[in-house]
Amino acid sequence: MWLDQADGFAEIFKGYLPYYLLVVFPIFIIMSPANPVAASHEFSVYRMQQYDLHTVPHGCRSASFNLEGRSLTSWSMSRHCVVARIQDITIDQFVEIRNKAGALLLVLPKNDTMLTDEQKEHIKLLEMAMMQQEISAPVYFAEWTPDFEDIIKDLQHSFITDDKSGTALEAMFNTVSSNGYQIVVSAPNPQKIDSKPVTIHGKLVGRSSTPQTIVIAAHYDSSSIIPELSNGADSNASGAVAVLELARIFSRLYSSVAVRGGPSLVFVLMSTGHSLNYFATKKWLEEQLDSSDASLLQDISFAMCLDSISSGPLTMHVSKPPKAGTPAQSMKSRLGVPLVHKKINLADELLAWHHERFSIRRMTAFTLSSLQSHKDPSRSTVLDTPSESSLKTLIANVQVTARALASHIYNLTDEENTEDSELFDDALTVDESSIRHWYKYLSSQSRAPQIITTTTNGGVSGALERALSRYMEVSLGAPGVDRREPEYALYAPTRALLYVYSVKPAVFDLILTLAIIAYLTLVYFVIQFFPKFYEEYAKVITGKVKIN
């Protein structure tokens, strides 16, 4: 009985097995636990900063790539895209990657508050090193996600280079057994964008008998290696917020003729700061001083620039030490802050501080900042994010600045304890809710020059114009960059979509192909010779020759 059933099974192998395989194999594939969708991922990534300053290129010059992903320790050639956490890569490793690798993808920290002080300092110094010169390979940054963390771990444990393997067989086995990733970014070629630096200014007119003018200025853009993530809470959302609050305070004092101060006050907000050599300030000064009607800046007493004032106590930076009896010396004594003197070096690519633009035009000027040096990496970092402690420091520094400025304008002294001084104390009280609102608003979005200098009617520039216009009549200027001799050029794109595909190495595909060929060959010969094998088997079991 069972031999007859075996005969029927043999008939299947003779004529119908190939057709059964066509049905069974797809069923097995569908039932497989592997999910094809999980083999690919899509991420939003941010391209590294790219700009030209005085025709000198800086930053990333490429945008697209299609390369195999490797870790910091396993990459070896230009066909590899190095994937790593930004806090793990050293400056020396970056220099080597810049010269030899095909692309670089850095994943930002999950939460920068969890970084140690050493890690934060390392990231800031790395950003400075990356922006020193141009990079031909595409460089992108991605925000942390669990998927990215898994990809980094896979790359760290999957690949072992030949020189790190004990034997050639071990290297071959590691290559075949590893899981790889193909990383693809399809983005348009970098193109220059039309940039128009925006300057917003307004004036509170003092008593006509005193023509002196005090300028209170700040730039409101921010700078970091990632334009799309340049929030710049300290540098320089804090300075812009301080200008708005000082404008509010003194607009109340100047609204009454009886208590109006002698000098006129000019409040200025510029859209380009230290990263672009204060270009908007330069253009604005040229417009105001070189025109036939230069009434706005007549008889300048001093220009006070506010830059990064929320990270600690204030310091006064000057290009020339103020002489005794001058308005600048009066402000220093009333502020009670240390003085840092640095001469202007026109041979440098960048000016050190904002006030130097005014000093070049022979105006008395100084910068108030919490930073001790213009080379502090905190001025241009993606880690410049808002915090409650920074907000409290900003409120305190605005209060100190407002009192010092009012004391200078109205010639008040600490010894005076009159009814007028009490009224001034009430008038000089800062609006903490307003400071908090503007600080959070400005530091919650990118203010990179690529973003805020390409539109003049909306966004941050429009919001600041509307805010300043509450206290005084406001003018807005947006001069274009000279195309014949541009001082700077900005480039797009600043973001792209990145696709990550889970793949096996080419050697694995070769070996798998050989294995499939060997398997199919074996199946073919089994099908062809199974009847003969069965006849021999039947002889052994029954002792008879099977007759068809």
Automatic annotation (TrEMBL):
<keyword id="KW-0732">Signal</keyword>
<protein>
    <recommendedName>
        <fullName>BOS complex subunit NCLN</fullName>
    </recommendedName>
</protein>
<feature type="domain" description="Peptidase M28">
    <location>
        <begin position="200"/>
        <end position="252"/>
    </location>
</feature>
<keyword id="KW-0256">Endoplasmic reticulum</keyword>
<feature type="transmembrane region" description="Helical">
    <location>
        <begin position="20"/>
        <end position="39"/>
    </location>
</feature>
<dbReference type="InterPro" id="IPR007484">
    <property type="entry name" value="Peptidase_M28"/>
</dbReference>
<feature type="transmembrane region" description="Helical">
    <location>
        <begin position="506"/>
        <end position="527"/>
    </location>
</feature>
<keyword id="KW-0325">Glycoprotein</keyword>
<keyword id="KW-1133">Transmembrane helix</keyword>
<dbReference type="GO" id="GO:0009966">
    <property type="term" value="P:regulation of signal transduction"/>
</dbReference>
<dbReference type="Pfam" id="PF04389">
    <property type="entry name" value="Peptidase_M28"/>
</dbReference>
<keyword id="KW-0812">Transmembrane</keyword>
<comment type="similarity">
    <text>Belongs to the nicastrin family.</text>
</comment>
<dbReference type="InterPro" id="IPR016574">
    <property type="entry name" value="Nicalin"/>
</dbReference>
<dbReference type="GO" id="GO:0005789">
    <property type="term" value="C:endoplasmic reticulum membrane"/>
</dbReference>
<keyword id="KW-0472">Membrane</keyword>
